[in-house]
Amino acid sequence: MGVGSRLRSALRTLLHKQRVETELDAEIRSYVDAIAGEKIADGVSPVEARRQALAECGGLEQVKQAVRDQRASTIVESIVQDIRYGLRQMRHNPAFAWTAVITLGLGIGATTAIFSAVYALLLRPLPYPGSDRLMFIYQHTKYGDGALLDRDFVAAQSALRPFESVAGYFGPADENLTGVGAPMRVSAMRVTANFFPTLRVAPALGRNFISSDDGNGGAAVVILSHRLWQSRFNSNHAIIGRTITLAGKAQTVVGVLPAHFVFPDPAAEPDLYVPAGMDPDTSLKTTNISIWGVLTIARLRDGVTLPQAQADLNLFEQNRVKGYGPFFVNWAQGRKIIAQPLQRYLTEDDREPLLILLACVGAVLLIACVNVANLQLARTVARQHEMALRGALGAGRLRLIRQFLVESLTLAAIAAVMGLGIAGVVTWLIRRGGMPGEFSAGSQIGELLQAPFGKLSAAVQVNG
User: Fold this and answer.
1) Which DSSP letter does residue 336 get?
2) How far apart are CA 153 and CA 170, in angstroms?
3) Which end of the chain is more exposed for a tag (fewer CB within 10 A), N or C?
4) Distance between CA atoms of 192 and 218, rounded to whole angstroms?
5) Containing structural domain, residue 123
6) How far are the Cα atoms of 89, 386, 408 from residue 392, in angstroms, in the given order?
């Protein structure tokens, strides 16, 4: 019999068990009647003929059981019986059942939740297309790590060939937003025109900044976050082209970011974005100038490795120092300009606590499994007489082992469902902790939920 035929036969047996049993009984009785008829034709009395026919067949019930044992559905029916028996045992021993389920459920739930956070923050790519090519560039000096100087950044945009684009941001600054309802304070981030294209993020409405917006004398334009667009502008699709007043200056809204966009800096969640207005001057000869730091994100060109890009950064740093004035030459002694994957930069402070937390919950799960195993062993000893009786009635060793395995798997399945519910609640709390405005500033609950997950915890979901 082919696999398809066996499958159809198994489904028919499972779905129409009563009818199949009736047909089996009729078929066997018909066979016995046929044998008895042959013997009666040979001169044997009807009673004796039927007795001999049953003896040759081996008994009606024995034949039925032999046929049932050959069915494809037999193992399924047997496992279903074992599950029912296991559930009855749990109902008769509620203290054991609840202790085991809660112990396992807590271990499974905690491990699942923390692994989901580790996967979302450390293993899963960042929520930007081609995020593995995104690098964070910073400088290491004798004074510590920091952002690139704005004039070094402008020079890097045209000098660093291993990178497809070099984008920057600085801020945020709290500004007054007026002209739409009551005045409110908003967080405004300054970004270069190529910032969102470098992340490969397109606005949900309107357009990105263009090069003419970014520079001294550029257009007074602004891009809104999706959150601000919803809360302050009531998701008005006609917002593009409208004028708002930011810090007393009229600004034209040119875009609205998508809802899923997460700003690539754990310390900021801007409400809106304005052009950086970078000065094209790259000289650092005298201290009689205003300078500031620019946080830098760059995208590697296809086929370029990080060591190759780092070598180009080293050469860039050496060339820059040659053009510095005496003060900046002294300041830059021993400086290194370093590129590292953006994901590692975002999770650097959280990496070790997260891995430690994952190891801890893994140990909790192991302890839970050991405790439940000990409970199972104690319960098995208490059921010795039951097992002895079942063995005496004909149950084989493998059959008894299977019964225990099915009972254990049933218990584990119930605990897994409970654990999944616990993991869902925990990851929901982690996400709430990463959402801006969910908890008041300085809230102990907010601080507890954000440590060690950080702002990117808003991306944590239960992982399949």
Assistant:
1) E
2) 12
3) C
4) 12
5) 73-131+348-464
6) 20, 10, 23
State residue 5's pLDDT score.
61
385: which 2 tokens?
């007489």
- Torsion of the alpha carbons at 147, 149, 154 and 157, rounded to the nearest 10: -30
User: What phi and psi values does residue 143 have, to the nearest 5 degrees?
Assistant: -95, -5
Six token digits for residue 104: 């396992």
Number of residues assigned to the chain: 464
- Does 413 lie in the same domain as 313? no
Q: Is residue 138 part of a domain?
A: no
pLDDT along the chain (464 residues), means of 10: 56 63 74 79 81 72 62 64 79 86 90 84 81 94 91 93 94 87 90 95 94 81 94 91 91 93 82 91 86 94 94 94 91 93 78 80 89 85 79 75 83 91 86 56 51 60 78
Is the backbone peptide bond immediately before 172 cis, with ω within 30 degrees of 0?
yes
Cis peptide bond N-terminal to 125, omega within 30 = no
Say which residues have a Cβ less than 8 Å from residue 129's Cβ, sequence separation at least 6: 200
Q: Whole-angstrom Cα distance, residue 307 to residue 300?
A: 11
Q: Which of 72, 90, 120 is the last residue of a domain?
A: 72
CA–CA distance, 270 with 267 (Å, rounded to integer): 10
Q: Domain boundary residue among 333, 360, 375?
A: 333
| 3-state DSSP assignment of residue 185 | strand
Report the number of distinct structural domains present in the chain.
3
Residue with token string 């975002």: 346
